[in-house]
Amino acid sequence: MATAEEHGATTMATDITATRRGRSMRRSVAGLVILALTLIATGCMIESPTLEPLAADDTAIATPTPIAAPVFEPTAVPEATPTPQPTATPEPTATPVPTPAPDLPLLEAQTPSESILPETLQPGLVSVPVGGTTTFRLARPRPVLQQPGHTLIYLDADRQAEVDIFTPIANDAGDALADFEAVIDELSTNPVFEDLGELEPVTIAGLSARVFEGSLLTGARGFHTDASTIGNDWAGWFPPARMRLWIIDAPSGPIVVTAESLFDPGQYDDAVRMAGGLLSTITFADAPSS
Predict the structure, then answer these.
(1) Any bridge partners for residue 108, and if so which?
(2) Mean pLDDT lowest among 30-39, 113-122, 244-253
(3) What is the dihedral of CA 237, 242, 246, 247, to 10 degrees?
(4) 247: closest CA among 265, 263, 223, 221?
(5) 3-state DSSP assignment of residue 274
(6) CB 262 within 8 A of CB 152
(7) Going by DSSP bridges, is the β-strand pair 150-154/161-166 parallel, antiparallel, or unpaired?
(8) CATH class of the 119-284 domain in this structure
């Protein structure tokens, strides 16, 4: 039987041998790995082929002609035919029947005297016997006094302001004033009218008119208004303290319209406003249509 020492020596020799074999095997494996990596690297290194330039061809390569894109014409859409609408039949128009002008009674002239009084007329058309027939419209009730060839329209019952319409047939001395220019001359030469100033001319009812304004000497007669009253101390037109005067070239002869105040100024502005309303509606016999 082997002794313990022999057995230990045998075992140690065996371990040394095994160790050497392990080292030799590891070296072999490492060599194989290195060889394999070398082969793999060598196989991956592939030389890139060199491309030879193409020889130039003497024949030019034709450039392809571009093909134009097809153009499609839009298809015309037929216009919609409008649906005919029924024609409206106009309703029958009644033929207007002309309304005859009212047959207005003329105011009756009163003989001038101290005692005559005006009558109050209601709003509406009024016809007076001045220059044939003169018509105007009252906007409100007014006291009105009619004398031969002379209409006096008072502002109110106090009779401190008025509008007069008259025919200036003669001056205070009785000298006839035949036409429009003769009346203008009388205003220019009679001392009663020396303080009058002339304003811009106007057109009244389609007729030419000259306009004057100012303060006057009172008491003296300015004009006779009708041949039948010459010699009557109460008849005719007497200038007020302040007035505006329109001389109208009417078909029948000159007609005068005045806005008057017995005091200066008194109710002068009110009289001028009333005259403006009357003149905007006034018409004269045989006057041209406006």
Answers:
(1) none
(2) 30-39
(3) 40
(4) 223
(5) helix
(6) no
(7) antiparallel
(8) alpha beta
Identity of the amino acid at 102: P
d(CA 76, CA 249): 75
User: What does the angle CA 248 – CA 148 – CA 100 come to, to the nearest 5 degrees?
Assistant: 70
Of 186, 200, 192, the C-alpha closest to 256 is 186
Residue labelled with tokens 């200036």:
168
Rounded to the nearest 5 degrees, what angle is found at the Cα of 220, between the Cα atoms of 190 and 275? Answer: 85
| HSE (side-chain half, CA atoms, 13 Å) at 171 | 16
Could you tell me which of 235, 250, 210, 227 has the C-alpha nearest to residue 169? 227
In which residue are the tokens 């024949």 written?
59
Burial class (CB in 10 A: 0-12, 13-18, 19+), 142: buried
Looking up tokens 């093909």 gives 67
Backbone phi, psi, residue 267, to 5°: -100, 30
Separation between Cα atoms, residue 246 and residue 268, nearest integer Å: 15
pLDDT digits (tens, 9 = 90+) for 72-84: 455 554 555 555 5
Sorting pLDDT into bands at 50, 70 and 90, what band is 100?
Answer: very low
Residue 266 contacts residue 161 (beta carbons within 8 Å): yes
Among the listed residues 234, 214, 27, the one whose alpha carbon sits nearest the alpha carbon of residue 148 = 234
> Three-class SS of residue 32?
helix
CB-CB contact of 143 with 159 (8 Å): yes
Q: Are 160 and 261 in contact (CB under 8 A)?
A: yes
pTM of the predicted structure, to 2 decimals: 0.65
Q: What angle do CA 282, 104, 244 make, to 5 degrees?
A: 25
Token representation of residue 36: 């394999």
Contact 180, 160 (CB under 8 A): no
Instruction: Enumerate the domain spans of the chain.
Output: 119-284
Q: Compute the 3-state secondary structure of the chain and give helix, strand, coil in percent, each to the nearest 5.
A: 25, 25, 50
Q: Cα(first)–Cα(last) distance of the chain, in Å?
A: 174
